[in-house]
Prior knowledge:
The protein is α/β, with parallel strands linked by helices. It has helices at residues 40-54, 71-75, 78-85, 97-107, 116-123, 148-158, 182-187, 232-238, 278-285, 322-331, 360-372, and strands spanning 20-25, 35-39, 61-64, 88-91, 111-114, 138-141, 162-167, 173-175, 191-192, 198-202, 215-220, 245-253, 259-264, 268-271, 274-277, 291-301, 305-314, 343-346.
Amino acid sequence: VEARTPPGSLGRLRPEPGDVAVFQLSGGTTGLPKVIPRTHDDYFYNSQRFAAVTGLDEASVLLVSVPAAHNFALASPGVQGALLLGARVVLAPSPDPETVFRLVESEGVTWVPAVPASVIGWLNHPARAKHDLASIRQVYVGGSRLNPEAARAARAALGPVVHQVFGMAEGLLCATRPDDPLEIALETQGRPMCPDDEIRIVDDDGREVPPGELGELLCRGPYTIRGYYRAAEHNRTAFTADGFYRTGDLVRRHPSGNLIVEGRKKDTINRGGEKISSEELESLILAHPAVLNVAVVAVPDPVLGERACACVIPKPGRTLTLAELGRFLLDEKRIAKFKLPERLELRDRFPTTPVGKISKKDLREELRGARAT
């Protein structure tokens, strides 16, 4: 390098704080993923500030068992936050409980980012009793909501080290704090990490809802993007005229000021932190020769949060099984396995709205009633 580049010229290669440092991809739940440009200054602050509010410091040992390319593992505070502090990072080759427990014990792990499905799996795994997990100081759970029942069970098993995080690759990060009261840690997904974060909770007409009511979360702040990369048309609807990002998340404000995340405004399924587009699945299932019409909805799951249920009206004289549908989607449509419907309901009609559209709200209620009986 020195032979080719005079040392004095390296200064020209030093990036400006506002230059793009990394491109991330959005979840792609409404079509092709969008490109998220994160700059050196905002991504540095992203990790530094989140480490400060969640208790990651230079003495920490961070275990990464969630996908390393996700914003959570990469920089919230993630590998980047740990390395900036001089902390140690342990990369797990697998998220299975046996591997995680073994590494926690052998490496003295203190800080663990996790998704709800993993945490629930840890609680019920027999290997937990065989390993010393006393080194853990923080387990931050995100990617999808950790419901209060699971949060209570996790705290009973692991101690008062379990906290919650809610955020997005586009910017805004919220978390419960290590010293928060039990009610906050169990029932909410925290509050913004930065005092300069601005949030609004609005109805479908963009009006702010009263405290405690459900609405879409809008955010603006020093580390939230101002627009997706080369996506001018999409940016016109993804951002308000005054620069607030429309997250698509449905939230309500807890009396403490913390946020409770209830779901997504757009029709997506959150399977253990992996987002599945109902619209994408429906278009693929409609290509099956036995399918006349289809509606894909989320059904609750105690471990993963949600699973995909395909409600199908078969063509006259045809029928379909879940196994047949799965083979078609894998072999013919080449979809990722995590996107496969895990429940199939055959119906002769769908509930509809007054204008004739499929009412997924009513469909979900019918499915819950059927499962309850």
